[in-house]
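Lay summary. Proteins are chains of building blocks that fold into shapes, and those shapes determine what they do. In this project we predict the shape from the chain. Here is one chain we studied, written as its sequence of building blocks.
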Amino acid sequence: MATLFDLPDLVLLEIFSYLPVRDRIRISRVCHRWKRLVDDRWLWRHVDLTLYTMRPKVMWHLLRRYMASRLHSLRLGGYLFSGSQAPQLSPALMRALGQKCPNLKRLCLHVADLSMVPITSLPSTLRTLELHSCEISMIWLQKEQDPTVLPLLECIVLDRVPAFRDEHLQGLTRFRALRSLVLGGTYRVTETGLDASLQELSYLQRLEVLGCTLSADSTLLAISRHLRDVRKIRLTVGGLSAQGLVFLEGMPVLESLCFQGPLITPEMPTPAQIVSSCLTMPKLRVLEVQGLGWEGQEAEKVLCKGLPHCMVIVRACPKESMDWWM
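And here is the predicted shape, written in a compact code that computers can read:
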């Protein structure tokens, strides 16, 4: 009868890739073959360290011993709610990531205090930067900062970053490679600030505005005025009306549109009104409705029948994992 040791290397590597980092290191002590497999470059392309409260010494060891040039994406947790004596992410660590990990493309920081970490210390190779429940300084993303910082940045996710405000949003305009922007729970951003920033971010191809204090109508108006090349839109339906939908009519290259609940107001457009507006968008191929209670109801049938050329997805609210931008 075959055992785990009889499996080919490629199968074992696939199995090991699902293990947390700590367990990967532990199994390297089982035998010489497993040690060789744990050292394989493929296994360390994507690393998630958010599961651990990790001392800086351990993080430096992982960086030097395992990750280095192999690393393509990294999820890293901070200690924002662990007290003043807890270790914090440092500028030195960020700079070391940039020096030792030349292939690092995606960095996701969770619950981290970045107020003392200048944005200039982040790896210049990043194409995606995600901040989840992080603290940033007032000058972190402001437009006056060095325009050569993060020259390759294509996507930024700002999820529950309480200090983020209009000035920071305006600062994003210096990232000329930026094509994807996700704002989640950034309640300090105003309608005026969004409109002014999108005017300079006209090259965006994906915009998601979720859980903010902005009304859906004002967001759609700003999109229709400034983002004529946008291909994907996702937003919560608070303040959405039939008039707001009209702002989107005729969008020339919009391919995917998602409305997310659970807030429903009397002004909420009917399924028939949504169909009418969507039919004016020549490239639309995906319509998604989440958390409006329409799944299995007459509303879902109206959408599917009225938009036969589209993939219509009607489902309940996404889970609380905050993975809604993926």
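What the prediction tells us: Residues 3 and 12 are 12 Å apart (CA to CA).
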